[in-house]
């Protein structure tokens, strides 16, 4: 086949299949160089190009060196190097963007290397590789015939480049672990000795804590009562402590380990299918970082040495080796690197499950029970099996964290801030969780258990009473219609929303499906997911918020740079506008899904007129791109903004002229208005939805929305409290989005209050200057109106 007759690939198919095949290549490779060599061969073949090369930046940050190539002389690998101020490859790093050039030999930055024999090539495409906005190398494509690369080709290759960056970064992380090995081992040995000493000599306080009946206190996050055995999420591997075995047969333990490793590799490749029951087939993806670690020779050799030289069982060898890695990662100064300990924990849990002959299940819970953990992250909550989680207890966390908000969406009784829970609860102990009062009862006596059985029966009767409101429209006692929509984050939330009578989606948090992936989903994957959700709601509107990462929401493959205050830093729409290719891909998927039902597009954390206008420019660009590709897109797509920073409150009059609706994000708005970190227990009392400044701001926004005739939807957790709902209704809010289990009880409350009563409550609140006065005033009004029992 001549160079000019090479057939260009279908880019949609190229992107999906190449990403999948790179995942397989990781399993077939034993080190970084072999992986890169396999990748350039695959990409060159799929792209129909004569050359694909990867250059990596050396430690000095100034020198690029050829590390892998298909098409150039292999003798040049490792030898050809240039400064970033030299050559077209250096230009891609220097400019930090894609460089596409026809007849590169005529470009002033062209540099000739005799070893590569690249004077034959008449087109050059260089795509920079980044780690958290810091350049680490270049993916370079060259062809014999002049070739102008199209936008879709560059987009597909940019996705490949992003994956290559992840592979390089994680390989280097493993190298840094090896370099710190001696220090890590010494630290872990000392720590293990301390643990053993403590286990043999328990103190009086610990013995007292292990007595049969005890109660622990925490902060209610989601109400309800639950009982069942304790399922402990161990801080290391997700299971209770592993003990070593005597009379170990190294050959047998090695065989067990090798079988478990192979099973774990295969399960990681098919993680998408394994998690589909909880998310959707489009939400889940392969974790490339985990595959790299599972194939790392150093990691495997440590496990084998622990078995053969120290004669540990395979399970105990796994515990000690993974502990070494976790400790080493945990001591790193860079916050991003410290967070890689979570990858090792996850890998350890899944290998251990295979060693024990268990099928890997989310969080490794064998029986339904109450989950007790030090802390839960949003990505961990995303993998929960709701039917096995009767309740949640965490030592850390705050009731307004996003992980807890996800637990609420699944209707799981939850309390947080229970100090010492993991030390005071043993596996399978009988627990009663009273999430109404924030109390955890451990091995309760019969009279306590009987009382809670009565409470549980009352709760079930209450649920049955609320069931009568599920399919009824939300109306006040005097007939004013209110829209109650659901907050969702995962495909599994759709059924919960429909079951609770939600009239569509007021807030779809698209970042949660991203958290269960190994890289950014492409346009087709997102389109299929959004289409499915829209069709499930059968004509009710679905409000899709664009990717909102940062703060307490990080992606495993895209961590933000270290910031002293990430909640007020590079997050949310700021990240999207700095990565327009990722932003545009998501918006294109939303526009395509809008053909199948009513969708509203929501932009988070807007703080200026420039922000919203830049977002609208990306929407227009996405429309042009779809039109050029001949793809159908929604003709009319209402655009809205999250009002969650004070600047947006003050700019509301101007912003209302730019958008079709406002969405009130009260969790963040209250946090920023009152300078109170909602996850910090030291200032939790300052996070007050009934602070006069908050009440005044909400009233002002409702008035602005009415004046400009645009919709206003309150999407925070504030509306789930009857006291708050009465106030908001009186201020003029008529649309709410909340965790779906709250919808029936909210309908029940609305059916008993008139609009006039709510407006009187609002006037009372606006007349006070202290939170205490507002709270007492609302309680008094509700009592006078006979609504105190709601």
Distance between the termini: 77 Å
What overall form do the CA principal axes indicate? Answer: globular
H/I helix tally: 31
How many β strands by DSSP?
22
The share of residues in helices is 40-55%
Question: How does the helix and strand content classify structurally?
Answer: alpha/beta
Strand order of the largest sheet: 7-14-13-9-10-11-12-8
Quaternary state of this entry equals single chain
pLDDT < 50 runs, ≥5 residues: 1-7, 11-16, 181-185, 198-211, 236-240, 272-286
Beta-strand percent range: 15-25%
Q: How big is the Rg?
A: 28 Å
> Biggest β-sheet: count, sense, barrel?
8 strands, mixed
Provide mean pLDDT, rounded.
80
Provide structural commentary:
About 45% of the residues lie in helices and about 15% in strands. The protein has about 800 residues and is of the alpha/beta class. Strands 7-14-13-9-10-11-12-8 form an eight-stranded mixed β-sheet. An eight-stranded parallel β-barrel has the order 15-16-17-18-19-20-21-22, surrounded by six helices. Strand 5 and strand 6 form a beta hairpin. The longest helix has 29 residues, at about 150-180. The protein starts with 10 loop residues before the first helix and ends in a 6-residue tail after the last helix.
């Amino acid at each position: 086949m001549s160079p000019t007759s090479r057939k260009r690939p279908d880019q949609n198919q190229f992107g999906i299949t190449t990403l999948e095949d790179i995942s397989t290549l990781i399993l077939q490779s034993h080190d970084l160089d072999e992986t890169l060599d396999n990748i350039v061969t695959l990409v060159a073949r799929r792209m129909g190009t004569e050359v694909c090369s990867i250059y990596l930046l050396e430690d000095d940050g100034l020198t690029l060196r050829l590390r892998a190539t298909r098409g150039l002389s292999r003798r040049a690998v490792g030898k050809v190097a240039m400064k970033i101020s030299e050559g077209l490859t250096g230009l891609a790093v220097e400019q930090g963007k894609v460089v596409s050039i026809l007849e590169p030999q005529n470009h002033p930055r062209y540099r000739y290397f005799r070893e590569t024999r690249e004077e034959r090539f008449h087109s050059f495409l260089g795509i920079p590789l980044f780690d958290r906005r810091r350049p680490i190398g270049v993916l370079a494509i060259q062809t014999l015939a002049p070739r102008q690369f199209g936008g879709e080709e560059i987009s597909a290759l940019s996705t490949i480049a992003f994956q290559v960056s992840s592979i390089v970064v994680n390989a280097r992380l493993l190298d840094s672990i090896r370099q710190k090995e001696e220090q890590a081992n010494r630290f872990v040995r000392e720590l293990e000795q301390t643990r053993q000493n403590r286990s043999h000599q328990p103190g009086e306080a610990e013995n007292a804590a292990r007595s049969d009946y005890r109660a622990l206190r925490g902060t209610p996050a989601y109400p309800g009562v639950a009982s069942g055995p304790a399922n402990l999420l161990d801080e290391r591997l997700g299971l209770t402590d592993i003990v070593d075995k005597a009379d170990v047969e190294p050959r047998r333990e090695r065989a067990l380990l090798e079988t478990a490793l192979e099973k774990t590799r295969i399960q990681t490749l098919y993680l998408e299918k394994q998690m589909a029951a909880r998310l959707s087939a489009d939400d889940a993806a392969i974790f490339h970082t985990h595959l790299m670690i599972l194939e790392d020779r150093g990691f495997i050799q440590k496990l084998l040495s622990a078995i053969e030289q120290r004669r540990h069982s395979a399970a105990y060898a796994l515990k000690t080796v993974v502990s070494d890695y976790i400790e080493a990662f945990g001591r790193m100064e860079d916050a991003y690197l410290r967070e890689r300990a979570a990858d090792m924990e996850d890998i350890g849990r899944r290998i251990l499950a295979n060693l024990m002959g268990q099928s890997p299940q989310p969080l490794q819970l064998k029986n339904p029970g109450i989950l007790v953990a030090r802390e839960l992250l949003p990505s961990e909550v995303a993998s929960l099996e709701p039917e096995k989680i009767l309740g949640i207890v965490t030592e850390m966390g705050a009731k307004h964290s996003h992980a807890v908000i996800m637990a609420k969406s699944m209707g799981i009784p939850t309390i947080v801030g229970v100090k010492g829970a993991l030390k005071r609860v043993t596996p399978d102990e009988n627990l009663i969780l009273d999430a109404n009062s924030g109390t955890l009862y451990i091995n309760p006596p019969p009279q306590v258990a009987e009382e809670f059985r009565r409470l549980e029966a009352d709760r079930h009767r209450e649920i049955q009473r609320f069931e009568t409101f599920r399919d009824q429209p939300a109306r006040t006692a005097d007939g004013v219609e209110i829209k109650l929509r659901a907050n969702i984050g995962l495909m599994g939330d759709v059924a919960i929303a429909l079951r609770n009578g939600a009239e569509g989606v007021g807030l779809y948090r698209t970042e949660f499906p991203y958290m269960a992936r190994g890289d950014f989903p492409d346009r087709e994957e997102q389109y299929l997911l959004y289409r499915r959700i829209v069709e499930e709601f059968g004509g009710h509107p679905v409000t899709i918020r664009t990717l909102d990462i940062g703060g307490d929401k990080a992606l495993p493959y895209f961590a933000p740079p270290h910031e002293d205050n990430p909640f007020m830093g590079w997050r949310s729409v700021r990240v999207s506008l700095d990565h327009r290719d990722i932003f545009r891909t998501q918006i294109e998927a939303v526009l395509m899904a809008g053909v199948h039902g009513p969708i509203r597009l929501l932009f988070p954390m807007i703080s200026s007129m420039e922000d919203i206008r830049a977002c609208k420019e990306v929407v227009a660009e996405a429309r042009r791109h779809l039109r050029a590709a001949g793809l159908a897109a929604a003709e009319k797509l209402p655009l809205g903004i999250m009002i969650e920073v004070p600047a947006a409150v003050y700019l509301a009059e101007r912003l209302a002229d730019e958008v079709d609706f406002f969405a009130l994000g009260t969790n963040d708005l209250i946090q920023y208005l009152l300078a109170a970190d909602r996850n910090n227990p030291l200032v939790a009392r300052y996070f007050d939805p009934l602070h006069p400044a908050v009440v005044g701001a909400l009233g002002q926004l409702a008035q602005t929305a009415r004046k400009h005739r645009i919709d206003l939807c309150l999407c925070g957790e504030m509306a789930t409290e009857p006291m708050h709902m009465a106030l908001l209704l009186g201020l003029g809010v008529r649309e709410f989005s909340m965790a779906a289990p709250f919808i029936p009880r909210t309908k029940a409350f609305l059916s008993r209050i008139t609009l006039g009563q709510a407006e009187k409550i609002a006037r009372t609140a606006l007349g006070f200057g202290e939170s205490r006065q507002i709270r007492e005033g609302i309680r008094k009004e509700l009592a006078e109106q006979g609504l105190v029992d709601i």
